[in-house]
Amino acid sequence: MRIFQRIQREVTVLTQCRCDRCGLPLAGEGADVFEAQEALHVDFVGGYGSVFGDGDRVCGDFCQACVQAVLGEWLRVSAPEDGGPKLAQNATQRSKPDAPE
Ligand SMILES: [Zn+2]
Prior knowledge:
It is a single chain. By secondary structure, the protein is an alpha+beta fold. The protein has one domain. Helices cover 14% and strands 23% of the residues. The chain has 2 helices and 6 strands, in the order ββαββαββ. It is extended and about 60 Å long. The termini are far apart. The site of zinc ion (ZN) has 8 residues, from helix 2. Residues 80-101 are annotated as: Disordered.
């Protein structure tokens, strides 16, 4: 037997998401659909030896411009037709150590 009862409960819903670095709206009021599509959402739990702490949850929401500004130098970006990685556009080229001869 199942007995049902109507109840009201309070729920939390996401109404807006902004870039944690620059504040650009990524979802909700004022958000551009293309910025929302290109946003990077980070959400993970650090494991044993994590620099963030064992078992600590790490979260962040970032617009594409901030991802490029902070990580672009190290990201490998490939155009679909290229097939090979290249550095992100406008990223500063890192100096590479001399290869042994
Ligand atoms: Zn941003």
